[in-house]
What does this fold into?
Amino acid sequence: MKKILIADDHAILRKGIIQLLKEDLEDYQFVEASNGIEVISLVRKDKFELILLDISMPELNGIDALKQIRAMRFETPVIMLTVQAEDQYAIRVLKAGAQGFLNKDTAPEELLTAIKKVLSGKKYITETVSDLLINNIRLKKEGKEIDLLSDREIQVMQHMAEGQSISEIAKNIGLSVNTISTYRSRIMNKLSLKNNAAIIRYAIDNNII
It folds into this structure.
């Protein structure tokens, strides 16, 4: 049976997440860990489809555990959970290799949506985190060709790099398919790119994710 690892130092929270998820994800077995050391040990011994990883845990925190997982060449998708403000950790955990970042105050429905999206092979980035990434990109790329793009165009490129189709991007951003197609055309024109694959490659090469 496919497995999901829930890592948090509070047992009541782990049990609550499992209770929330087990009805919708009935094909999955849920495994628990209470600290980062346990996470590393479990990842070495077993295969997981997804890890929900708390940032603040004893012995080894979530970010360091994630870095170790990636250093060991394990590509298991990870969603980081925290009680901290998104602007404090979001960019750090995404750069460390997480596929998603959520505050523990997130509504249960959004957590489930994020999990399903990451299980499908995509990233899950909230609008707040997307804005943080755009600002970070602008600071790092100041004076370069990325400055030709508007914030919305960068956002569309981010979604494309996550593997989303034009219709999926339109739904997630709340715009029409035609509008997203227009943004895509502008991106290609401004950056002299020929197709979707080139846009995705540019986004990856320039860390626009």
